[in-house]
Structures are given as C-alpha cells and as structure tokens.
Design brief:
12 helices, globular, single chain, 276 residues, 19% strand, alpha/beta, eight-stranded mixed β-sheet
Length: 276
Amino acid sequence: MIKGMETKSVKVGQHDIVYSHRQSDGPTLVFVHGITTYRFIWRNLIPFFPENYNIIALDLLGCGDSAKPLDASFSIKAHAHRLREFFDNLGIEKLHLTGHDVGGGVVQIFAVHHPEMLQTLTLINSVGYDFWPVQPIIAMRTPIIRQMAMATLDLGMLRAIVARGIHHQEKLTDELMAHFSQPMSTSVGRKAFLHFAKCLNNKDLLEIESDIKQMKIPTLIIRGAKDPYLSEKIAHRLHLDISGSDLVILEKGSHFIQEDLPQELAGLITAKIQIV
C-alpha cells in the first residue's frame, strides 16, 4: 500500500485494524486520515521524514483495508476511543499524532483524554467545533458528503470532487483516482462510507470545547488556503484556543494538501518534533 512500509493488522475490540508501518527506533509518528480517504493519503509524505522515525499510518474502522462492521459506531468519538486500544496493543506509550479532515477531530478527542501520551499534535485541514456536518440529514446537505455519497455510483463525480480538493491539478492522476475509488468499488465499501457519514455529529467536538482550551500539548495547525470544504474559521479558532499552538497557512494547498505539498508538510511536522 505504501512503498517502504509493511502492511500489518491488529485486533481492536472484535475487529481488525490495518496499518502501514515503517519501523525504526526513533520518534513514533502516527497518521490518521479523514472520511474521504484512508492510509494511502500519507504515501507521498512519509518518504520525506528522517529514516529513524518510527511511522504508522492506519485505516480507521470502516475505511481502507480495515474491517467494515456496519453495527459498530464510526463516530469520531468512537474512533478516538479505539485509538487508545490500538496504541496499547502495539505497545505505544508516547507518540507524535497527526490527523487530517475528520481524522483531525479524532485526534483532538484523543488528545484531551490522553494528553500524557502525546509529544506533539498536528491538525491538517481539520474539522472542529460546529463548522462542519452535524446530524446525518445536515451532513448529507453538505457538498463534500452529499457528493461523495453520490459518487459511490458515479466515479466521474468522484473525480470532480477530488479535483476540487487539489490545488496542483497535474497531480490529479489516474493512479490517485484509483486510490480514491478503491473503497467505493464494492458494495461493502460503499455502505461503510455512508455509515461513516451518518455517524458524523459535531456534538462530539462541542463536548470537548472547554478541554481544548486547557491543552498544553505542543500543537501545529496547518491549513491549505484553497481548501473549499472546511472553513478557515476552524484553523484560526483552534489556534486561538490551544495555548502556544502554531498556525501555518499554505497558500498553494487545498483540502488534500498531502497531494499538493507533501515535502512542505513533512518539513513542518519534522521541525515541530525537533524543537520539542
């Protein structure tokens, strides 16, 4: 799945979580994707990190190659709670945690509940507060969610959605679209995506609003200025609320900024880790 990384799985609860691992004895970095992607989204970023970094990119339950039980909750709160068991099962006690999109909400919840485990926190084009989809009906009114749902049957529309989330259009390749469309190629994958969308509720993040203001974790907030899907208000408010956080706006990045600017992202995260 990701060049230079070994594909592994671990049981979390009753279900298998699949992840890619580049094992080393240096700092541990873990990457959490959002609803429209899975661990492939980090594939161009990871080669730019120092070789001694111990790197893990996982597929959340219901995504990528992980199990897709439709009777389990795919809410961001549920994903955050599963992260703790995932880390425990891998023997990870300290780590640098990065989340993108809805994955940014997952790692925010994890951070407020387990701050002692985090050495740094990085939020990339993250959801936050109530500036993103709420209950299922409202979620389906939101362009990216509604269009992605429709794209389960229309791969042409899926390409249009991905294109809108990438600033450097030359990076919209057939290979990239094959990665994006892979989960949508089966009935199970399509049902899992729609279940994930139905489980989204911003109440999960509103519940930790006061906790975010108490966090002391060194935090890096990155926003692609061209992101059409998530409000710039999220990044600025997170920066205001998280004491000592750094905010970086990348003018030539869109929502899927890992495709636009992988080297720049890796450099920013590495710099943050090295000064802690």
